[in-house]
Each structure stands twice: as structure tokens, then as C-alpha cells.
């Protein structure tokens, strides 16, 4: 997992819960990196999982809810860091339907070792989209947060329903309807 995902995560934890919480979750985890991340480095996903688990235990907020809020913050990082990529689009459904065959392809050119999910488009109309998310990392709520913000970016909103295909969240159907 790319360092930018860790640095932005710990910045947000500091912002919302204070520096003591950042220190606490780092101390509670077994981290090869010792909790020292640079935005261009690459670290084990298991480190993110431990940080999330401990934050969840310390705050009584579910990992899914933490990932949702984090993704909403991460979207603004993407807007700042990759304005050109988002500017290719003028419609949220078009943008989301292009994650697999455009957006994340460009991401892979920048970060060849990025660990990305797959999003298979099952059905698409002007106002709706059905996609299957697959990833061993089960970060579907991170996807949900990015989707919410994608609609907001285009001054729009949507109703998004998640249906787990696999109980462990490694395969999830997203049913997206523009409001
Ligand atoms: C992960 C870039 C848009 C869904 C990532 C990562 C990067 C990235 C750098 C981390 C990879 C790693 O740590 O190895 C971008 C950029 C985007 C974009 C530059 C747009 C400009 C989106 C959108 C979605 C999305 C709109 C909506 C669903 C995800 C998910 C992950 C991810 C769910 C977590 C990894 C996983 O589930 O396996 N993306 N992304 N991305 N991205 Fe994107």
C-alpha cells in the first residue's frame, strides 16, 4: 500500500482525535515501518489494517465507518494531487465507470506497485451504474466514500447500495442510482 494512504490517514487521525491517538495506535501495532511513513514509500497493507483495528477499538467506531470518513478526506487529496485526471470527466457515472479502464490504469503508471481493486461494470445507464468490486483488502467502504465525493464533486448526489457477494467483503456489488 502506498505511503500517501498512510500519511494522509495519520494526518486525519491527528486532526480528529489528537496526536496522542496517533502515538497510541502506532504503539499498539506491530509495524515493520515503526510507524514512519513517507508519501512515496510502499508499506504492507497489514500495517494499515492494524492501525484501523486499534483506532476502531479505541474510538468504538467501526472499521467500515472509519474507512468511509477517511475516503471522503482522501478524495480531496486526489483532487489536489491529480486535478488533470478528474478534469477528464464531466459526469460522476462516467467517471466511476472508468475507474478500471482509465483512472487506476493511470495510477499504475505513476505507482507500478500500487495495490488496486477491480471494478467490473455490470450495467450502466445515464443515471445508474452497477459494478462489482473485488479486492483481497475488502476496502469497499473506502470505495463508497470516494463514490459519495465523486457525486459531490459534480454537484450531484446518489443512492448507493452495497450487497456483499462474499461475506468477508472481498467481493461486493455496488448499485448506484443518481438522485
Ligand atoms: C486505492 C488512486 C479514484 C477506489 C487507490 C490507491 C491510489 C488510488 C493511489 C492506493 C493504492 C495503494 O495503496 O497501493 C486513485 C486516483 C483516483 C482514484 C488518483 C482519481 C483521480 C478512485 C475512485 C474510486 C476508487 C473514484 C471509487 C470507488 C479505490 C479503492 C482503493 C483505491 C476502493 C483501495 C484499494 C483496494 O480496495 O484494494 N486509488 N483512485 N479510486 N481506490 Fe482509487
UniProtKB/TrEMBL annotation:
<dbReference type="InterPro" id="IPR038158">
    <property type="entry name" value="H-NOX_domain_sf"/>
</dbReference>
<dbReference type="InterPro" id="IPR011644">
    <property type="entry name" value="Heme_NO-bd"/>
</dbReference>
<protein>
    <submittedName>
        <fullName>Heme NO-binding domain-containing protein</fullName>
    </submittedName>
</protein>
<dbReference type="InterPro" id="IPR024096">
    <property type="entry name" value="NO_sig/Golgi_transp_ligand-bd"/>
</dbReference>
<feature type="domain" description="Heme NO-binding">
    <location>
        <begin position="2"/>
        <end position="160"/>
    </location>
</feature>
<dbReference type="Pfam" id="PF07700">
    <property type="entry name" value="HNOB"/>
</dbReference>
Amino acid at each position: 500500500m502506498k505511503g500517501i494512504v498512510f500519511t494522509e490517514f495519520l494526518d486525519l487521525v491527528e486532526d480528529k482525535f489528537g496526536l496522542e491517538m496517533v502515538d497510541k495506535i502506532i504503539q499498539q501495532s506491530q509495524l515493520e515501518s515503526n510507524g514512519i511513513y513517507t508519501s512515496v514509500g510502499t508499506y504492507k497493507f497489514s500495517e494499515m489494517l492494524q492501525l484501523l483495528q486499534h483506532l476502531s477499538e479505541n474510538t468504538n467506531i467501526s472499521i467500515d465507518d472509519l474507512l468511509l470518513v477517511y475516503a471522503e478526506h482522501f478524495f480531496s487529496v486526489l483532487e489536489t494531487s491529480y486535478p488533470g485526471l478528474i478534469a477528464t470527466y464531466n459526469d460522476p457515472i462516467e467517471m466511476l465507470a472508468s475507474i478500471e479502464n482509465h483512472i487506476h490504469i493511470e495510477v499504475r503508471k505513476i505507482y507500478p506497485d500500487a495495490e488496486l481493486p477491480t471494478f467490473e461494470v455490470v450495467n450502466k445507464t445515464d443515471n445508474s451504474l452497477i459494478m462489482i468490486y473485488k479486492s483481497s483488502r475488502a476496502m469497499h467502504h473506502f470505495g463508497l466514500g470516494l463514490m459519495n465525493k465523486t457525486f459531490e464533486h459534480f454537484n450531484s448526489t446518489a443512492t448507493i447500495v452495497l450487497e456483499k457477494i462474499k461475506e468477508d467483503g472481498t467481493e461486493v456489488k455496488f448499485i448506484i442510482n443518481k438522485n
